[in-house]
Amino acid sequence: MTATQENSDCTLQEKHKQLAELQAEVNKIFAEAITNQVTTVDFATEIWVQAMLEKKPYVAIACRMIHHSTTFLGDELLQFLRYLATGTLQQDASIVYWAVDLVNQGLIINNTLKENNENGECEMQNL
């Protein structure tokens, strides 16, 4: 094994560790919402607000939920998220409501995917 291969393996291991840590944070956030019986609308609002404050796990959750509700991927998803974030920061109420609604729809879709996974019908991707 060359030094370059060892460095890339180390970097890959670090990325897997970071992803596992992020997933643990996300799982904790969802567990707290479930324990506190937070409505999906309130949870969606919290996710969007915290994402706008650039809190890492919430940004990841918002991205995944908006992906679920729009099916945008890659650059298309990033451009759309920038549009929603810019509108939110400019205090455009219609865009804020739209962003929260998309996150809410994503939460509902995510829950359906999770329920189907528990029944063995399909499998949800991790963040």
Q: What helical percentage do the residues reach?
A: over 70%
Structural class: mainly alpha
First-residue to last-residue Cα separation: 31 Å
Query: Could you spell the SSE succession in H and E letters?
Result: HHHHH
How much is the radius of gyration in Å?
17 Å
Q: How many runs of DSSP E, i.e. beta strands?
A: 0
Strand residue percentage: under 5%
How does the overall form come out from the CA principal axes? globular
**Overall pLDDT:** 85
Number of separate helices = 5
Give a written overview of the molecule:
- This protein is an all-alpha fold.
- Helix content is 81%, strand content 0%.
- The chain has helices at 3-35, 40-52, 56-70, 74-89, 93-118.
- It is globular, with a radius of gyration of 17 Å.
- Residues 121-127 have low confidence and may be disordered.
Which features does this protein show?
single chain, 127 residues, mainly alpha, 5 helices, 0% strand
Describe the structure in brief.
This protein is mostly helical and 127 residues long. It is built from five helices and no strands.
Give the topology.
Blueprint lengths: L2 H33 L4 H13 L3 H15 L3 H16 L3 H26 L9
